[in-house]
Amino acid sequence: MIDLPINKKIIIFDGVCNLCNNTVLKVIKYDKKNIFLFTALQSDKGKEIINHLGIDLSKVDSIILYEPGISYDIKSTAALKIMQEFKGFWVLSRLFLMTPGYVRNVIYDFIAKKRYKWFGKRENCMIPTPELNAKFLN
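User: That's the sequence. What structure does it adopt?
Assistant: Structure tokens below.
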């Protein structure tokens, strides 16, 4: 069993993707209830969680939302469930969850496939600033 906080939702993201890193920073900004923790797919903790869940990274290579002891979601479902935690216009994300996942994931997969070309890629995973370090699993 992996030692993870049970009162947090964990976002596992592509740590070398600029789009993913910028999205993580936005989620941190909007996470007023301090619900989320983060780890990169490429990190030891990310790999440990992925192995624990039995996820095939050849099929999911950009985002996983994991609620320890409850469930995990991938791709567009993960992104939409993250957005549901925020106030304001973000609540509209609930409407998109009514669309079948296979339809949503066609769009999601298209963007995920082009993300490095459109937004760039880092050589290494993002290293959080000291102020943000508490939001990341080590």
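DSSP finds five helices and four strands in the chain.
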